[in-house]
Amino acid sequence: MKGCPYGSHRVIEPAGFLPQAALRIDNSLDLYDNEILVDVTTLNVDSASFTQIREACEDDVTKISSMIMDIVRERGKLQNPVTGSGGMFIGKVSKIGKDLLRRDLEIGDTIASLVSLSLTPLNIERIVQVHLEKDQIDIEGKAVLFESGIYARLPSDIPPKMALAVLDVAGAPAQVDKLVKKGMNVAILGGGGKSGLLCCYAAMKKCRDSGKVVVVEYSVENAERIRKLGLAHEVIIADATKPLEVYEKITEFTQGDLCDVVINNVNVPGTEMGSILCAKDNGIVYFFSMATSFTRAALGAEGVGKDITMMIGNGYTKGHAEFALGILRESSEIRRLFQKLYI
Amino acid sequence: MKGCPYGSHRVIEPAGFLPQAALRIDNSLDLYDNEILVDVTTLNVDSASFTQIREACEDDVTKISSMIMDIVRERGKLQNPVTGSGGMFIGKVSKIGKDLLRRDLEIGDTIASLVSLSLTPLNIERIVQVHLEKDQIDIEGKAVLFESGIYARLPSDIPPKMALAVLDVAGAPAQVDKLVKKGMNVAILGGGGKSGLLCCYAAMKKCRDSGKVVVVEYSVENAERIRKLGLAHEVIIADATKPLEVYEKITEFTQGDLCDVVINNVNVPGTEMGSILCAKDNGIVYFFSMATSFTRAALGAEGVGKDITMMIGNGYTKGHAEFALGILRESSEIRRLFQKLYI
Ligand SMILES: NC(=O)c1ccc[n+]([C@@H]2O[C@H](COP(=O)([O-])OP(=O)(O)OC[C@H]3O[C@@H](n4cnc5c(N)ncnc54)[C@H](OP(=O)(O)O)[C@@H]3O)[C@@H](O)[C@H]2O)c1
Ligand SMILES: NC(=O)c1ccc[n+]([C@@H]2O[C@H](COP(=O)([O-])OP(=O)(O)OC[C@H]3O[C@@H](n4cnc5c(N)ncnc54)[C@H](OP(=O)(O)O)[C@@H]3O)[C@@H](O)[C@H]2O)c1
Question: Which residues belong to any copy of the L-erythro-3,5-diaminohexanoate dehydrogenase N-terminal domain (chains A, B) (predicted)?
């Protein structure tokens, strides 16, 4: 019994939709030949979704647990009905459909899903523990991965929860590695956060000796951290929602040249214009932030007559998981920092 | 007296914003040295904005006129407070600031603005006529272009209102010309509309003899039009909001290869996934449609593990106006069609 590679065979309603857009999907454990069954141990709930749930439940763990159970019972997946977003999971492979046996994967392997929980068939038997501060929930349950569903085997040398934190934003540093070339000017907005730090590392790797990496960061604390770790040539403390402030400081630092590549990792809305102004003509702005508005970016660039390429941050690019985990292996300083912040 | 190239010197509130994001800008006629003053004759109101205004005023031309006057009086620009969007204008240059005298522009030249009215200082002395069916308003008034504000001189061989219709979507065909190379498979969703037709033409120019251009269009009528004009190798009649339907038909037509470049020109929401599935790995999806959702695109590609480049349709790219007008010069068939549809 072979299902659709994208999982449409499990969509209950509305028909013709794919699992992410569907209201309800079939989370039964009867496995199709091109699916993988996983015993899930931890859910890493998307930060926007978890914040909404915590607020709705007033941080009451019992209420949170039953809200989570209700969502999954109703939808067959953990997709927050308000934010639309999901998260990721960690678990052990328990069954592999016969069409996927050739894959480099074995029963018992611990994996992290790299596709969103908002499209993943999920069964929760029991909620074991809710970790309020880490957006994580330990559970007993099962999830299904479709043929197109990407995942990463967890390495033995990195603690699972540190790996989960890094894998959540793995698309960003891998894209930086693709886009940035030696000698370029690179601006990283929101460079002090989780994805930002990894992006800085990736950019400095290419441009430390020939090029300029500049971070725009809001908090003095985060800025200091980047300076100390030598993760940028310059750290500008500014509010990315104020385009002219950012533009003037970047102009000064680059002596009017502006930037070949601008990476936006800020987690608040209204930073499109600041990003656009920092880019050179023919430069690239890579919007990784989920708070990006499509229309603000499109009209914004036109409004100032900027001939730039604006990219929507695809969470996936080939080899992204290995690249991101590789940073933790290469840099003991970043590893220590992630240990402190995200474990 | 030199202003900010981006017009921030005219922002009244909130301070630190650029004109587009501002609530109110200074529309006084005292010209800065790096500004251009234009006698405006026609406003081409953005379709989303005009639809909203028409509904609010129940198509009563007097009410529409006073609503337009009110908006401009309050904001100093014609930015619809509900949709946030603007439009473009046509007018004659009446004054050029001394810093911009070197430009290839003379007093008396007729130009179309290529930046949005949502950021353009505007004064309306009198509304002459409201053209309900064409989203156009003839006025007597004045507008200011900033140093960064792009414009096109209207050609003498193309009627102004036809030029305006084409210039409104000029970014799209020019980008197609940049992205598409000989021998590629190209899909154009919503290829039967205004921007779509121009994109088809640009794609066929590259790929007529070596490559495949396929259009996905909703209406039988529009599909027939493209077939007759020979603007694609194949026209698929399908609903772009149904990703699997589109995917299956594109798979069949390309014999499983899928497309190197996918252009989205559909004017309704929910077509991100259909576009993503049609692209090859390492392919490009160019979202020109303003109905695109950033998050749906970002999470959608990740959700199906597609390593593709997704671009936000920048309304501007170098030479876009000349390129789009050039299509009307090259193709008498497209010119006739635009004459019929948009004049
Ligand atoms: N495209 C994808 O597939 C994908 C996947 C995962 C995450 N994301 C998105 O990526 C973004 C970043 O995620 P993250 O986990 O790295 O978040 P994060 O750790 O919270 O980092 C955000 C950073 O932005 C800084 N910042 C906030 N407001 C700012 C402002 N006004 N000016 C300058 N800097 C400001 C923050 O500084 P403070 O700490 O001082 O506030 C922080 O350093 C989020 O929007 C998230 O949704 C996208
Ligand atoms: N990025 C920018 O700077 C910029 C500038 C201008 C415009 N735009 C955007 O570009 C888009 C297209 O503009 P336009 O002037 O070309 O619009 P348009 O002439 O109305 O064309 C839209 C086309 O999409 C087709 N369509 C509608 N629903 C469809 C569906 N479900 N499946 C397949 N095709 C469908 C329409 O067919 P029917 O006629 O049968 O409905 C029509 O042929 C708009 O979203 C507009 O906002 C962007």
Answer: 9-155
